[in-house]
Specification:
InterPro entries: Homeodomain-like_sf, HTH-type_TetR-like_transc_reg, HTH_TetR, Tet_transcr_reg_TetR-rel_C_sf, TetR_C
Number of strands: 0
Biased composition (Low complexity): 1-17
CATH topology of the domain at 92-213: Tetracycline Repressor, domain 2
CATH class of the domain at 92-213: Mainly Alpha
Order of helices and strands: HHHHHHHHHHH
Distance between the termini: 93 Å
CATH architecture of the domain at 92-213: Orthogonal Bundle
Strand content: under 5%
Pfam family, one: TetR_C_11
Number of helices: 11
Helix content: over 70%
Protein name: TetR/AcrR family transcriptional regulator
Keywords: DNA-binding, Transcription, Transcription regulation
Largest sheet: none
C-alpha cells in the first residue's frame, strides 16, 4: 500500500534543525559564561564550568571558541547589542544630528542605562576588575571591546570639527577622555552616582569649559 502523499512532509518536519539547535546552544553558553563570571569572577570561571551550566559538551565550546576569554568577549558584545536594540538604538553607533552636544548627551545617557542594567553590571564589573590584574585579558578587552567604541567618539568629534562646532586644533583622542573617563572612574570606584544628569554635565563642562562665558 502506497504511503500517503503527506508522509514525506511530515517526516521532513521531524528532522532536527541543526541551525536552530546551534543557536540555542550558543545562547545557553552566553548566559552561562556571563552568569558564572558575575558569580565567581573571571579567574574561577572555566570552560568546563560554562559547559556544565549551559548543558553542552566542552568540545562544543572549543568548536566555536579557543578560550574562555573569547567566549566572554562574544557574550559581552552580544549583551551590549541586545541592550541597544531594546533601547531602540543601533549598537556601536553615535548619531550625527548636526548637534554634537545633543549627540554626546544621547550616547552617554544610553551608556548610563547600560551600566545600571543588572544583566550588564555584574559581569562587566568582574571583567573590568580582572583586566586590571590580568594584563593579557586587559589588552584583549581593550582592543576588541573598548577601542571600537572609542573610535566612534573620535569620528563624531572629527565630524564636529569639520562643522566648526569643535576647535580645529583639538585632539579628538584626548578630548573623548573628558566624557568617558570620569564616567568610567565613578562607576568602577563607586565615587558617586551615575545618572543622565551627571553625564549631561560632563558634556556641558567638556564642550564649554570652566571659564566664565
Amino acid at each position: 500500500m502506497a504511503a500517503p502523499e503527506s508522509a514525506p512532509a511530515a517526516s521532513a518536519r521531524t528532522t532536527p534543525d541543526a541551525t536552530r539547535r546551534s543557536e540555542k546552544s550558543r545562547r545557553a553558553i552566553y548566559d552561562a559564561a556571563l552568569g558564572l563570571v558575575a558569580e565567581v569572577g573571571y579567574a574561577k570561571t572555566t570552560v568546563e564550568g560554562i559547559a556544565a551550566r549551559a548543558g553542552v559538551g566542552k568540545q562544543t565550546i572549543y568548536r566555536w571558541w579557543s578560550s574562555k576569554a573569547d567566549v566572554l568577549l562574544e557574550a559581552f558584545l552580544d549583551l551590549s547589542e541586545q541592550a541597544a536594540r531594546e533601547a531602540g538604538q543601533a549598537p556601536y553607533v553615535i548619531p550625527d544630528t548636526g548637534d554634537v552636544a545633543a549627540d554626546l548627551r544621547a550616547v552617554l545617557r544610553a551608556t548610563v542605562d547600560q551600566l545600571r542594567d543588572p544583566r550588564f553590571e555584574a559581569p562587566s564589573r568582574a571583567l573590568a576588575a580582572e583586566g586590571v590584574v590580568n594584563e593579557q585579558l586587559g589588552r584583549v578587552f581593550v582592543a576588541k571591546l573598548l577601542e571600537p567604541s572609542l573610535r566612534l567618539y573620535v569620528d563624531r568629534l572629527r565630524a564636529a570639527q569639520r562643522a566648526g562646532q569643535v576647535r580645529a586644533d583639538v585632539d579628538p583622542r584626548i578630548a573623548l577622555e573628558l566624557f568617558v573617563s570620569p564616567l568610567a572612574q565613578r562607576w568602577l570606584q563607586y565615587t558617586g552616582p551615575i545618572s543622565h544628569e551627571y553625564t549631561d554635565t560632563l558634556v556641558d563642562y567638556a564642550l564649554n569649559g570652566l571659564a566664565p562665558r
